[in-house]
Amino acid sequence: MRLALDLARAAAEAGEVPVGAVMTLDGTVVATSANAMRAAFDPTAHAEMLAIRRAADALQRSRLDGCDLWVTLEPCAMCAGAIAMARIARVYYAAPDPKGGAVDHGPRLFTQPTCHHRPEVIAGLGEGEAAAMLRRFFAERR
């Protein structure tokens, strides 16, 4: 999670919403990313989406069985859907997102009967730091 938090901090410095993501396989980092929606002019360039794409490319496979995703904010519905489709084993997230999250808030995507894969979810690692970074980022823009 430390690496994901560092990526989130770099994203904030670049003017992006501070979210970082790291994909690991057997404890080895296979992909990293941070939000890049503004820089890429791409509303789907969330940290999780980019980490999934990069990990799939690095591993040369479309399913990321056995991989763990470490992300600084609870994934949204788009990212949760991609996580399920990629068959990611575990999702570790730092800060909850009561407004936009879709794992433990909102639609709770992984509990839906139409969800084909349900990763193990571990929440709260690095929560204080991630939440403070997000609050600070948005306070500076209001």
List keywords for this structure.
alpha/beta, single chain, 21% strand, 5-stranded mixed sheet, 142 residues
Structure description:
38% of the residues lie in helices and 21% in strands. It has 142 residues and is an alpha/beta fold. The protein has a five-stranded mixed β-sheet. α4 (77-86) links the parallel β3 (67-73) and β4. α1 (2-13) runs parallel beside α5. The model has no long low-confidence stretch (mean pLDDT 97).
Low-confidence stretches: none
Distance between the termini: 28 Å
Quaternary structure: single chain
Element string (H = helix, E = strand): HEEHHEHEEH
Total number of helices:
5
Helical content band: 25-40%
Tell me the layout of helices and strands:
Blueprint: H1 2-13, E1 20-25, E2 28-34, H2 37-40, H3 47-59, E3 67-73, H4 77-86, E4 90-95, E5 120-123, H5 127-141
Parallel strand pairs: 3-4, 4-5
Antiparallel strand pairs: 1-2, 1-3
Helix pairs in contact: 1-5
Quick overview:
The protein has helices at about 1-15, 35-40, 45-60, 75-85, 125-140; strands spanning about 20-25, 30-35, 65-75, 90-95, 120-125.
